[in-house]
Structure formats: C-alpha cells, structure tokens
Amino acid sequence: MKSWQKEFESPSPIFRGAPFWAWNAALEPEELRRQIGIMQDMGMGGFFMHSRVGMATPYLGEKWFECIDACIDEAEKRGMKAWLYDEDRWPSGAAGSLVTRDPQYRQRALYCQRIEGDPAPGKGDVWFRILWSAGEFVRYTRISGPGEGTESDGQLFRFRVLLNEPSSWYNGATYLDTLNPAAVKRFLETTHDTYSARCGKAFGKTVPGIFTDEPTYVSHADWSTPWTDALPEEFRKKYGYDILDHLPELYFDCGKTVSRVRWHYRDMLTDLFVRSFAGQIGDWCGKHGIAMTGHVLMEDTLRNQTLAVGAAMRSYEHMQMPGIDLLTEYWQIFNTAKQCTSVARQTGRDVRLSETYGCTGWDFPFMGHKALGDWQYALGINFRCQHLAWYSMEGEAKRDYPASISFQSSWHDKYHVVEDYFARLGSVLTGGKEIRDVLMIHPVESCWSICLSAGLTKSSVAEAELDRDWNSLTDHLLSVNVDFDFGDEEMMSRLAKAEDGVFRVGKAEYKVVLIPRILTIRSTTLELLKKWAESGGLVVYLGEPPAFVDALPSEEAADVYRRYFVFAEKPWVEEKLLAVGRRLSVTDRSGAQIAPVLSRLAEKDGAYNLFLCNTSMTFSGPWESPMVRERNLAFPEAVVRVALPDAGAVYELDPSNGSVYEVPFRREEGSYVFRTSFAPLQSRLFLFTTERPEKISARTEFHAEKPQGALPGGDEWTYSLNDFNSLVLDHCTLKADGRTELENAFFIQADDHLRKMLGAAPRGGQMVQPWLRDKTVPEKQLDIELTYGIDCVRIPAEDCLLALERPELYSSILFNGEPVSRDPARPGWWVDPVLKTLRIPRSLFRQGKNLLTLSGRYHEKLPGLESIFLLGRFGVYEEKIGELPGRLKTGDWVKQGLQEYSGDVTYERSFEADPGSGGHWFLRFGAWRGAALTVSVNGGEERPIPWPPFELDLTSELVKGTNRIAIRVCGSRRNAFGPFFTGQKWMAWTGPAQFKMYKSSERQLVPCGLLETPSLLIRK
Fold it and tell me: What CATH architecture applies to the domain 725-872?
C-alpha cells in the first residue's frame, strides 16, 4: 500500500477526471482506441461513453457493442476506467426511443384548461367550476360534466391527462413516464440488462459505473403538471382522500398561500419518482456491482426541484456515486453541491461527481478549470466529469457545447497539468470522515406547498423570496467559515436520531441544527428536534416559526420553537453557532473573516486534512459570478485557526507539483494556529499528522522585492506559430437550380433556406439521430452552387490548404475557375479528421477578389453546409489575406494578422541578466489572454504557468550575460469556430443556439496573446 506521500506525488488513475466522451458520428474501434490514448496523455483516468447529437452507429446494436468492447479492452490495457452512460442523448429514460415507442411507457401530464362554449367530453376528464369575485377566490366545485352549473357558479375548467407529443429529440417518440415503475423497469431491461449481458464481466473492474443524466418528471408545457395513471390511487392510499376532488389547488392559490393539497401532491410525485427511477436503478446497480452516478434535472433552486424532481436529495440517496451538474463559469451553485455532498456524507458515499465546464465555450482558460473545480472540491465534490470531449466535429456536433476537452483543442497537450493537480487533490480529499458540525434543515418542502403548476417560468413572489433567503443564508454561513450539511426532512424521518450528545443523520454526526425561514415543517422533524433540544442539543432558527405543521395551520411549531429552540437574526447567526458549530477561522490582517475562502476539513487515516479555496469573489447568489479572469481578490496575510486535537505537525501539500512543506504553527486553546496567504484563485491544502513525510521541500522565504521593469526588448518579439493561420469562410452566395437565392449569406441561414425549399425542417441538435433516420436518398433534390469571396491584398508566399467537411459530396470545387485537386494534402486533416485538407497552389491566387466555388446536389439527408477554412502561412487583416508580420508586438494578436488564428504562439527574445548578483529572478505576467502559458529559458524545459500567480522563478536557468526566453501562449479555437454573431464577445452560455444567432454582422473575436510585456523582479 502506498504511503500518503507517494499516493500524493503519483496518484492513482481513479482520482483523475473522466470526460463525457461525445459519441457523435459513425464509430470505428481503431479511432476510439486512438482517442483513448490521447485522453490518457491529457491526464484523464477514464471516460464516459456518451451517445450525443450526430450518433450514426445504431444505439445498443452490434456495432455499438463492438465499439464498447474495444474501449473496455483499451481502457484495461492502459489502467483506465470505461464508464457507461445510459441513454442516447439525454435525459435518461427513453433509451433513444427504444422504450417509449410503446405508448404505455410515455410521459403524460395533467392539463388545466378554461372552457368556453360547448366542449366535446373526453374519457377521464375531470370538471370544475371555480368562482372568483372581484379578483378574490371564493370556491371551487367538482362537477360531473360541462353541462352542470352556470357561469354564476364559476368559470368552467377541464382537467385532462394527455400523453406527451412525439418529438424529434426523442427520435420520434417521447420521454419516459418516470413516475411509473413498470416504465422504468422496461428502461432497465432495455439498457442496463443489455449492458450486463454484453460486458457484465467488466462490471466493478474496468467498468465502475453507469451515468444517468437529468432524469425528471417535469412537464414543460404551460398549464400542465406531472401525472401518471396510478397517481390518484397511490395518493388515496397514502393521504386518505381523492386528489381529483382538489385539482384546482395545483394551479390556483384558492385562497391558501400554503396548501396541504399541493404539499401532498409534490410529496407524492417525489415518492413515486424516487421509488420508480433512482430506487430501482440504484438497487440494480448495487446488485450488479457497479455505481449509479450522474445527476437529476433542475437541482439548483427550490422551485426548480419542486417542478422537476421534488427533492434532489432523495434521489441522491440511491446513487452509489451521487453527482451534480455545473454549467458555465457564472454559476455559483453552492447549495447544489451541498445537497449532494450532504447526502453522500450521510449515506457513506466517498466519491461525488460533478459534470462540469459545460457551456463555457472554446476560450475557457485552465485557470477556469481549476477555479471551478477548486470551489466544488472545497464543498465536498471530488470527481470531475469534464463536459465534454468530442469523438468528431462533423456537422452539428461542433456546436454541441464546446470546448472539446480533447485533441481538437490546441492546448490539449498541456492539459495534463490540470489533471495532475486534481488527481493529487482528490487523493487527499477522497474518503475519510468530513467534519461539519451544523445541520441545516432543507426548505424545499415549503416550496412544495406554494408552487403552482401554471408554467415553468411563472414563479411567485413567495417562491422567489424562499430561494433568495436560502441562497443568501448559505452564502453568509460559508463566508464566515461555518460549514454545514443539509437535512432532507423525509430522509430525517427515517435516518435521524439524537443520542450520546450528537444528532445523527445516517452516518453523519452534528452538534447544531439550524432551521432557516420555512413556511411549514414536518411533525416528524419537529418531534426529533424537540427531543434533541430536551436532551441539551442546540437548535437555532431564523425568522418567524412556521405557521404550518405538515402544511396544516398549527400553533405547535411556534410553541416548540419558543420553548426549546434559540432564535438568531441572520446577520449574527454565526455568533449562536461559534461555540459549538464552527471549528475554523481564516482571518485577514484586520482580524476579519476572509469571506471568499471556502473550506473542507476531514479526518482520514489517523490524520486531518484542511483544504482552503480562495474563490477571489464576493458571494452574490447562484447565477451572477464574475468571469473567472475577473476574480482577483487576494489576501497576502491570513491567519488560520482550526480547532483540532493535537494530531502532530502541520504540512502544506502542493497539488500542482506534489511538493510537501513544513508549516510553522502554534497550539493555542485546543487549536492549531498558523499563517498563510492567498493569491487570486489560490488554494491551500494542509495535513495535520504525526507521520513525518519522507521528503520535505524547502520553501524560500522572501523579505524584499525589487522590480526590474518590463522584460528588456521593447514591445516587439520574434515569434512562431504551431498551427496554420486560418481564414474562416462562412458567408456565401447561394444558387439553387440555377437561380441566385441568397447573397453574402451566413452558412446556417443558407442551409436553412435550402431545407425550407425542400420542405424539410431546419438542421439542429433536436433532429432525429442519424442512426434512426431513413437512409433512402429522397427524390427531391437541388442543384446548388456556393461561391465564397476571398480578398487578397498580398498573394500568399506558399501553397495554401482548404479544410472542409465531406469534399466528396461536391461534384466540383473550383478556385478562380480552376479545379482543386481532390487528393488529400498533408497533413490530411485540420483540427478534426472530418475537416479534410485539399491543396490550393499559390499560383491560383490573384490580388483582389478570389472566388471559391463548390457545386453539388443537396437533399435533406446530407450533413448540410458548414464553414470552410483557408489555411496557410499568411496574415488575415479585416477578413483580407496579407503577409504575416515579421515580428509580433505586445498586444492583441488578433489585430496583427492572426485575426482568426486558433493555435498557440511562442514569443521569443533575448535579454541580459546576472543571476549571480544575488536574489531570485522572477518573471511576472501582466495582462494576457489565452488558455495557459508556458516558459522556457535558454532552450530548457518548457514549464507551464496554468493559473495565478502568473509568475515563475527563472533563477536556476539563467546564465550571466545573454539569455533567451520563449513564452508560449496557448490559444483556443474560439476565433476560428465561434460563435461569432451574437452581438457580444462573451456570453453567459455557449451552446448550439448561440452559434445560430445572427444579431449583428460584426464578427466577435476575442483578444489573444501577451497584452502587456511581462516584467522582471528580484526577490531576496
């Protein structure tokens, strides 16, 4: 068994990330094996085999399993893990339509409709008259049919259960009735049993688990609410009355801010959903020796959970490896992570997944990968499923939520530094016993009682206030270092007990229970907490006591609260918890708690570990975090005080390189006290142990700093590119059947126009998957001609390349009227194998306007039009071809001839230094843009600088006299692949819709390169 230090220095693959591997084209085993090798080189420990938009290999067919087998075999050879995924696209349940072709398994919903006139009755319809007077609710009355009563008795409403309409997203079927255990059982038989039969021998070994993605019962249509055929009878059994007599309360407040009917209904939905879906699948996985992992839909807010899954924590309970979904860099969904890690702790699940980095776009930097991962690890997540790595970029696939965290990204050969970091961090933070002494009652059930089924976007003021209070309380507690878990009330009714001076929920122990502002509380919760308080336990509450118990008006809660619990106003709530519930203090030089720092404290293998994450931002709710590069709060002096028994010495572990340092400390009143600091986005990992490390690195302490100014050499650099420069050709003149249809048209608009001419729906991610489409070539076709203009200020000095998809589909490719050879030109493809390269001799170019013309036959079964790229050793200035600059200047390279370049640039220059004069010579970077930086000196090792602080000690590599420095700025594919025409450079969300936008003809390009010349400084 490895010592902790050896495991930290060289962590096992199980601690490395496993990306969503988007299987999105016709699969070939050898290409799959090639890409697995690339993922391993990038530092990945495995991959999730995930069918996505563009999948052309029949799902769960023979070829599919040939590919699955090849991947399991290759993973086993490489010591990696091959994770399964349970669906074709998402959400999980329909099995790519294989299950829901049968109507009995299809999702259904209850629709509410106001009726005017003389309606035709339908089987199973339920009728009501609802009376309002002067806008105030009076009563509702169930009636036998539309002919009973008059308008004076109230407006006529019909409630009708309807199956969901078939959708191309579900391959011509619908989503699954996840409230129906028989439907989920059919899904299990179709998917999980098939995997077990075909590759079950690898379960629990090379195949550790299966991902379920966004299961839900949500009804997306306005004036509808989730339903299943058995619901009325199940409801009657559980609650003793007929839900059908009270349907208006699901849609209208009916004079009740808090409704017991709504509370019972949402409880029923949650119970049915959890038992049918997570319960069955979790049991199946447990019996078959693999982990159920993944996440549920809309887990982020109280209202979203209410509408989609009821209570997310109840589903996590059944997952062997519960998980969450973090989208964009702007989401700060602390509560989502807390829900998951709370259940994991309470049920003894050591590994917690996050599907992360989705929707961040091509230019999301390594510092962002670290920053988003760090705050999640500080809240108990410890396994990253990177969203996502594409198998192919063909057609729609290239717009499927980039970036591709794989070989298509120019920085992929440096990504291992990110994985090495998180593997080391995970080796320490996975397992053990987390220490969180505060339990907060989760307020979702209060939202149940007030949530109306009028539509997904029509939330009430009361719901918004509940969510706002919940988020702000979490932000406040975390900002003052009071860590906590959530307690789901239903789970507590089964798993909680107070004994031996602690309050237990499953396997977790607490010393304080905190009740946020809630509208209703379960009687079981009230009784538990009363007994805990009677035995001397501390219960702290905020706001007024709830006026409802089990969603019925009651004075009981107010009486118990005031007799047994402690009231705390929010701004001072931590003062009520300090003596019992807070073990950690991280203060700045003024003695104030450092609000942006998140923490995780745990006991493991006879030692303690503490992870501190500087988020470098103020906490302002779940959706509006600043861009990562704008998070710059730093704390040069910090004092850490952590209440722990004497566990030995303190060491700092650096996950970036595996180093271990001794930390000076003192013991004071039962606590460790020591000093540290936080650069922007810097995290610190400490270990308290009696086991002295075999290797301890010396940390140089600097006491003085002397700036030397900008790196000598002015603002000009010699430079080199590691890729072709590119000109994006995405506007064309379109002719169809000899007639000009569009001029200077964006290719997506041109493609939509052609499909409209054919009577076909526009292309998009919602299309029926290729594996299910009819392959018959349609009779209706169009002769098309696409003409692209290329302005040349200066003819390229060398032959150029044309990169395009499926050139064989065009009968003619002409450049200035001359045929372009179809023979593949080295390197054969660019960025992705689907973008084939053809040679265009420089002799075909002319100054001024050049014309590229493609002709062929178009029909709706073809992949469709895509951007084309001109590649070569030329410059691009305002969409015109010119010369590459002889030198680059400090500043945005986009404005220096690299307008749509998407590779890396290495800047070089010489400078004089005398390292023997004393001190350490540091290179410090100012403003720059790109994915990451590397530096090499005098031809030495290329050292990465992936995240702050953006500085490097050059001393050991410098020589007296002239030194040569090479700085590589890793670029991204953003300026070649977009999105371009959204009207803004950086969007809150990058997905397929953004690539189709055309709000402005101005191409939005992001700055890249060294925007400021780095500086030198000497530290002593």
Answer: Sandwich (2.60)
Where are the domains positioned within the chain?
11-107+164-434, 120-163, 438-450+458-581, 584-699, 710-722+883-1019, 725-872
Q: Region 734-761: what's the mean pLDDT?
A: 97
Closest by Cα among 694, 645, 732 to 5: 694
Report the C-alpha dihedral over residues 262, 267, 272, 274, rounded to 10 degrees: 140
Residue range 438-450+458-581, CATH number: 3.40.50
Say which residues have a Cβ less than 8 Å from residue 208's Cβ, sequence separation at least 6: 46, 81, 83, 290, 291
Does the structural domain 584-699 have CATH classification 1.10.287?
no
pLDDT over 60 at 776, yes or no: yes
Burial 846-883 (b: 16+ CB within 10 A, else e): eeeebebbbebebebebbbbbbbbbbbebbbbeeebbe
Q: Once rounded to an integer, what is the mean pLDDT over residues 460-483?
A: 94
Q: Is 691 helix (H, G, I), strand (E, B) or coil?
A: coil
pLDDT by residue (tens digit) across 953-970? 999 999 999 999 999 999
How large a percentage of the chain has pLDDT more than 70? 99
Q: Which residue has the higher pLDDT, 376 or 575?
A: 376
Helix (H, G, I), strand (E, B) or coil at 1: coil
Q: Which DSSP symbol is given to 769?
A: P
Under a CB-based contact definition with an 8 Å cutoff, are residues 51 and 90 in contact? Answer: no
DSSP-derived letter for residue 22 is E
Surface-to-core class of residue 949, CB atoms within 10 Å of its CB (0-12 exposed, 13-18 middle, 19+ buried): middle
Interior/surface letters 563-583, b for 16+ CB within 10 angstroms, e for the rest? ebbeebeeeebbebbeeebbb
Give residue for tokens 């420069």. Answer: 725
Alpha helix (H) ranges present in 162-253? 181-190, 192-199, 231-239, 248-251
pLDDT of amino acid 579: 74
Sign of CA dihedral 894, 896, 897, 901: negative
Assign domain 710-722+883-1019 one CATH number from 3.40.30.10, 2.60.120.260, 3.40.50.10540, 3.40.1350.10. Answer: 2.60.120.260
Structure-token match 């400021």, residue found: 1012
The CATH topology of domain 11-107+164-434 is TIM Barrel (3.20.20)
Q: What is the average pLDDT across 451-459?
A: 75
How many CB atoms within 10 Å of residue 487?
27
